[in-house]
Protein: Glycosyl hydrolase family 13 catalytic domain-containing protein
Organism: Vespula vulgaris
Amino acid sequence: MFRTLCFCSLLLATGLVHGEIKNKGWWRNAVFYQIYPRSFMDSNNDGVGDLKGKNHFKFVVEITNNFTCYYEYGSHIPFNFKLITDVNQNSSASDFKRIIEAWMAHTPSTGSANWVLGNHDRSRTASRYPERSIQMNMLPMILPGVAVTYYGEEIGMVDKSDISWEDTQDPQACNAGKDKYRSRSRDPNRTPFQWDSNENSGFSKGNRTWLPVHDNYKGLNLENQKNTPQQSLYKMYRTLIQLRNTSRALQHGELKMKVMKFNTDYCYNCELLAISREVPGETVSLLMSFSPAIAVRVELKDVMTLYKNTYSEVDAFTPKRYSLNAGYVYVFPWEGRVISSSD
């Protein structure tokens, strides 16, 4: 098993089932959860997160009923930052398709792809893609290989951009000086994890936290997303990990991608990206709308192989899977939908 604590991050592999750990290749399709220890959980109430508390990783276990730390020498996963550096809010479906294809083309047959949407050095996904947290968090879960989640992305945490000079901790921001620190600071995406609506969002019972908690914590926190009867980003994330555990298509399936274009009076040249994983007898597809204005109708037979049983596994509105009988779905602006079909 393996654990990396390199200055600021710990990687935990989730989505495993007992028995897989003995297989040295288990990590090739795992979900890795990356934490920033100072901001994950404070167990001694000094305002700084640590790794000593007994319940630090309880919610990670709840996501999929298991997790492990992996200890083995060597660098197995050279992080792929293309989803951070080469695309942005203004990128098209064709842009995403191009960088995914390029990475897959350069991944050796003996290697495994990996997909990183955010980390401790970059602005959070929900800040870079406003209103698109669900579809963007779906993407690495459907692509082949390792999916890496930076803590807080699974509930849609955003950057805290108003951290004062007095509260700044990032060395490169401090070195830039009071007039320029904001442009160099990485503190906005390192704020304490938002556990609940209690003081300091449940991160610490101390009088002061090492970085201020985001002001939106009373509404945006893990507890709220777990307990709501409606769909939430956390519920979606948990469902996708469970789907990765059980789906042959997501574990072994061939990758297929298609860009669909829609021209209407309200949206010229709007695009939808369909990403499918297929094995004989099963297909799982992600439909990502790049339309800012209208819902688009997608004929499922045009983007995936259909079998006897077709389900909507995850969408933005419904927390439970449901059967699809019409042969088509509507994908709303900036929405992502995961569809499965099997014998």
Summary: The CA atoms of residues 41 and 204 lie 7 Å apart. Confidence is low (pLDDT under 50) at residues 1-8. The chain has two domains: 31-244, 249-342.
